[in-house]
Amino acid sequence: MEKIKRYIPRIIILDTIICLLIITMLFFILHFFNLMFRQWIYVMFAILIILGFIIGTMQLLLKIKRKVIKISSILIFIIILLLSSPIVYLGIVFGYMPEYIVKRDGKKYVAYVNGFLKTYVYYYDYKNLIVVGNQKKIEEYYGRGGFDPINNKYGYNYEVVRTTYYDESGNVLSIDENKIIE
């Protein structure tokens, strides 16, 4: 047991795997209580895990004794990193949804804007700085995409095409539709 305690802090990739397991357990525990982390927490965890795997892999590659195998392994790892970088970048760009804390109908919500091809705004119950309710409460559909109706930089008047309200179980309570041509 002492040997394991001594080696865990020295092997970064093992620390990263343990951290990943703890984070996964936290996700399941929060889901059990109908909560989820805020987006900035997910981003922080993702950066931590990615850096941990990169640094941990480099640490293991640098421990290789034979110089030729060590250098070729490091070069292959760097090439794999460079080739996978655009895929990770595209995943980040297309997966990012701006997050806002808004007041609506006298209640505090966390709003996520998805404005890629079609613009949607999803509202979740605000709990605190770290977690939100995991059940969508309101969904606004704006039609065409490419804009952020909450952070309205240019002062345009964006019309809501459809607003859907949900109950605690995720069932549709009501749908309000505006007759706007897309």
Number of helical segments? Answer: 4
How would you describe the shape?
elongated
| Residues in helices, as a percent range | 40-55%
Mean pLDDT across all amino acids: 88
Q: How many strand units? A: 7
Structural class: alpha+beta
Unreliable parts: none
- Output the radius of gyration: 22 Å
Proportion of β residues?
25-35%
Largest sheet: 7 strands, antiparallel
The end-to-end span amounts to 65 Å
The helix/strand order is: HHEHHEEEEEE
Could you describe the 3D structure shown?
With 182 residues, this protein is α+β, with helices and mostly antiparallel strands. It has helices spanning 2-7, 12-32, 39-62, 67-95, and strands at residues 35-37, 99-104, 107-114, 118-126, 131-144, 162-166, 172-177. β4 and β5 (131-144) form a beta hairpin. The mean pLDDT is 88.
Q: What's this, in brief?
A:
With 182 residues, the protein is of the alpha+beta class.
Question: What features would you highlight for this structure?
Answer:
about 180 residues, 7 strands, 4 helices, seven-stranded antiparallel β-sheet, about 45% helix, alpha+beta
Topology (elements, then pairings):
Layout: H1 2-7, H2 12-32, E1 35-37, H3 39-62, H4 67-95, E2 99-104, E3 107-114, E4 118-126, E5 131-144, E6 162-166, E7 172-177
Antiparallel strand pairs: 1-5, 2-3, 3-4, 4-5, 5-6, 6-7
Helix pairs in contact: 2-3, 3-4
